[in-house]
Structure formats: C-alpha cells, structure tokens
Specification:
The chain is an alpha/beta fold. It has helices at residues 15-25, 40-49, 59-64, 80-89, 104-117, 131-141, 163-169, 172-188, 205-209; strands spanning 5-10, 30-36, 54-56, 70-73, 93-96, 121-123, 150-156, 192-200, 215-222, 227-233, 241-243. The chain contains 9 helices and 11 strands. The strands form 2 sheets. It has a 6-stranded parallel β-sheet, sandwiched between helices. Strands 8-9-10-7-11 form a 5-stranded mixed β-sheet, covered by helices on one side. Helix 6 packs across helix 8. The protein is globular, with a radius of gyration of 19 Å.
Amino acid sequence: MPDAIHIALIGAAGTGRVRAQNLAHRIPSAKLSFVVDTDYEAAQRLAALFDVRNVSADYREAVADPRIEAVLVCSAAGTQADICREAAHAGKHIFCEKPVSHSLAETDEVMRVVAKAGVKLQVGFNRRFDANFKRVREAVGSGEIGEPSLLHIVSRDPEPPGIDHILSSGGLFLDMTVHDFDMARYLIEAEVEEVFAMAGVRIDPRIGQAGDVDTAMVMLRFTNGVIGSIDNSRKAAYGYDQRV
C-alpha cells in the first residue's frame, strides 16, 4: 500500500477502537501504523487486532515518527489540546475528537498553532456525514421546504456513560450537546446570537454528585431570526434517539 497515508491512533479505548476498525477495513487510502495509549497493554491488544507493529504508551513517540503523516486523537478530553499542538508542530495532520479543549481560549490557541503550521485539523462532528442529516441540509439550503422558522433537535442516548467518562468529559453540554450545536448551525446556515438553557439531574444522582447534569433543554435564536430548541437526555429507555 505505497500510497496510503500512515496514521497514528492516540487513544485505544471507546471511539479509538471504532476509528481503528474504520482505518483498517473501510478506508483503503489510510494505513493504521501506530497505536498509542497510556494503558500500554490496551494499546498492544488493539494493535494486535489490526497487525500494527508500532505501539507505545507515549504519544510523543508517534508524533516524532517520520513515517507518520497524520494522527487521530481519541484520548481523554483533557489531553487533546496538548497532543494537537505537538502534532501540528511536528507537521502532522490531525483528526481530533470533540472537544479539542474544555477551554475556549485554549481551543483558539490550538487553532492558531495549526494555522501557523499549515496542517489540517478536523474535529469529529460525525453527524455532518450522516446521509439523513445531509438530506435535511439540502432540503433547507435549496428552499425545498421553504424558509425555516423553527428548528427542534432531539438528541438522547440509550444509556449514560460511566462516571469516569462523566468526570473527564467537561459536562453534558461540551460532551453531548456540542454535536447538536454543530447540527443547528449546519442545518440553518446561520450563527446563534442568543442561548438559554435549563438542565437538571433526572436519571442518575451520581451524575449530579460528579458535578454534571443528565437532562437539558436549550433555546437558540439565530442571526436570521430562526428559533431553535435542543432536547437532551443521557438515557432514553427505548434506545438511541436522533431527530430534527
């Protein structure tokens, strides 16, 4: 595979496993060439599944490898900004799971480093590539449905994540609603100028004890006058629910 892009996966759990499978089986122009996780044994297990020889517990080894052209950053949210910066400095292209950082200022700083380095950075807003959402965007953009006045997004997970994830995620709005904020802007093709939110703990008291919420409603007003709402829940008894 001489023309394949050699990619390092940083973070072997959760979404990292999904990304590894996609690289190995669904993207012919990509080659998974390095697996990194602070849990070295977890990195080894994942690497063995996809016949990857290069394994490390330190992402700096992958970033410094001259064969690596791009990195997939799937590590804990609090670590991603540093990895993105170092990868950019090393001239590697970057795919980063959301959020890049829990801090807006740090996210802006990462963007400046990436721009100066001249590398590409993509954040994992996967719903933009879902055929159903794309069809809605086309219907709005072409005028097929007329001029939008109201947008309602329902976004509910089948089960809440583990408390360890809750503690490191940055909270429901950064971890879950961020996808819906992206969808709102993508579908309406306008920026949001006013936001109001209400949230509470309705599903698992441990989530509240961890300093987070599990249920929320968000109201949005767009610059073009459209009014939007986002309905979030960490648990829908009937299964995963994504509607617009």
